[in-house]
Amino acid sequence: MTTVEGIGVDEPRFWAQVDRGSGPDACWLWTGSRDAQGYGRLPFRGPWDYAHRVAWLLTHGEPEPGIQLVSSCRNRACVRPDHRIPSTAAGAGRYKAEHGLMARGERHPSRVHPERWARGERHGSARLSDQQVAEIRARYAAGDAPVRQLACEHGVSISQIRRIVTGRGRAT
After folding, report:
1. Between 20 and 30 A from 67 (CA), which of 94, 108, 128, 138?
2. Could you tell me the pTM of the whole model?
């Protein structure tokens, strides 16, 4: 058993769960248990720790506090220390943005799976039903009621009614 800063790590047992692949730059895949996102997990320093962090710890020592280990190979099961870049949170964000690893625009989860996001009257803090929003828009467009009157009738703020009638809020 190898000890790293007073913490016991069974190094041969750890590396036995790694498929080192073939080739000089091949990924080293974690064959043990993985979390829902595909990262290797093992019991270490508390209930669980990431396998790639333990591999880094065994080869390079403990990373500085606040340092993230960003994957350069984009394989979540890879624990090869050469495929990790130590970085601050800001640096990790820049790296992910530069390499297209952030879900933005059409790849954002709210666009890919809109049914999972509570919108309109399904939102927990919604005070108006979708039918009320449609009625507010119709009455305002017809000139039947000013913003202030609509706000008083529905018990919401004037600014909320303005967002609804201008289309900047509650796009239903």
Report:
1. 108
2. 0.60
Residues 6+ apart with CB under 8 A from 77: 27, 29, 30, 34, 38, 39, 40
For the CA atoms of 156, 159, 161, 162, the dihedral, rounded to the nearest 10 degrees, stands at 180
Q: Are 60 and 116 in contact (CB under 8 A)?
A: no
Place of tokens 């390499």: 99
Task: Report the alpha-carbon angle 32-36-38, nearest 5.
Answer: 55
Output the tens digit of pLDDT for each of the chain's 172 residues.
444 445 566 788 889 999 998 888 999 999 999 999 999 998 887 788 899 999 999 999 888 999 999 999 989 999 999 999 999 999 999 998 888 888 888 888 888 888 888 888 888 888 999 999 999 999 999 999 999 999 999 999 999 999 999 988 876 4
Asked if residue 43 lies in contact with residue 70, where contact means CB atoms within 8 angstroms, the answer is no
Query: Contact at 8 Å (CB) between 169 and 128?
Result: no
Residue owning tokens 């800063």: 5
- Backbone dihedral angles phi then psi of residue 165, each to the nearest 5 degrees: -75, -25
Query: Domains in the chain, ordered, with CATH?
Result: 2-111 (3.90.75.20), 120-166 (no CATH)
* DSSP designation for 33: -
Place of tokens 């000890």: 3
Residue whose tokens read 């996102």: 37
